[in-house]
Amino acid sequence: MKVNTEKGAQLFTGMDIYAQEQTVQEMYAKNHKTPAPFPAQRNKIFSWIHNEGLTATAAMQRAVSDNSLE
After folding, report:
1. What is the signed CA dihedral for 59, 65, 68, 70, rounded to 10 degrees?
2. What is the per-residue pLDDT across 19-49, written as a single tens digit (0 to 9) for each?
3. What is the distance between the alpha carbons of residues 53 and 32, in angstroms, rounded to a whole number?
4. Does the global pTM surpass 0.70?
């Protein structure tokens, strides 16, 4: 996670997670060599949003509970 603002830093420090400080160069050297693959559910989620008018939240909840997408 990259924190860009003071408000973001305040929110980040309030989270109960492991964090390791890195430079931007170190961060991008590890994470941006190849694009991440899309999850299998992605196309179905966007279809529900576009064709059925679901909100992004509702589509995500449906994808989590829909066993046929696995």
Report:
1. 90
2. 888 888 887 787 777 777 888 889 999 999 9
3. 33
4. no
